[in-house]
From TrEMBL:
Pfam families: NAD_binding_10. It comes from the Bacteria. SUPFAM superfamilies: NAD(P)-binding Rossmann-fold domains. Gene3D superfamilies: NAD(P)-binding Rossmann-like Domain. Residues 15-150 form the NAD(P)-binding domain. InterPro entries: Lipid_A_modif_metabolic_enz, NAD(P)-bd_dom, NAD(P)-bd_dom_sf. This is Epimerase.
Amino acid sequence: MDSDNTLKTPILVLGATSLIGGHLMARLADEGFDPVAISRRPPAGDACWVDGDLTDPGVEDRLPPAATVFSLSPIWLLPAVLPGLKARGMVRLIAFSSTSRFTKVNSPEAGERAVAKALIDAEQAVETWCAENGVAWTILRPTLIYDEGHDENVSRIARLVTRFHVMPLSGRGEGLRQPVHAADLAVGALAAAQAPAAQDRAYDLVGGETVTYRVMVDRIFEGLGKTPRSVPMPTGLFALLMRLAKPFYPGATAAMGTRMGQDLTFDSSPAARDFGWSPRDFHPRF
């Protein structure tokens, strides 16, 4: 294992305009690095940018030289381009996956089970390929990611609260959550890239605080300057509400209600030990 904790350059960021990507590009620039971005639209600032994504035919021919690669694109797109990245000098890979590989594997929704399988298969493919080709890898699995006004988790709830002034809950909403901010994930990715102990390991990354689903919703109300008004209801009634809401809220599924009562918690102590993971508590501000 390489004991050098210097970030190897040049640096390439795949998915640079994603939630985490924007924060990572800014963080790299603040620390004096000049990363190259690959994305469908230009990232903020003056970063060098390649128009495209990993699904483009022939994208391997347009990849720039890079020793360190941060992958914020869906991890199932990554295995196909690993040979091209290696050919252009990659020796260090930090790739984001998701704890959904665990939480959705037994979902009643076929689409969610498919996502879990895609994550599991992609992680295994990345680990195997990197081990066989001498690339040091780290896989980071965040829990529920938020970035006020931009994400589709916490901010989606905030939009519902703003529109309807109440938030229905399936049951009492006692399932535990660990929301993690996208900016903290960018800091963690950069730290992991420079930590020898993080090489060839996968980490679950959670926020600084564990709260119930209901408390999470109440904090969102407070972040909007509103008095919390969450409304517990029987699970069957909530499932019916989701079916009725589907034409107006495409992401609505009965599985959402089921998970409100489930503990979706993970342990980030290995990340704290190996690269100083120390995220903020959950107090969003919109």
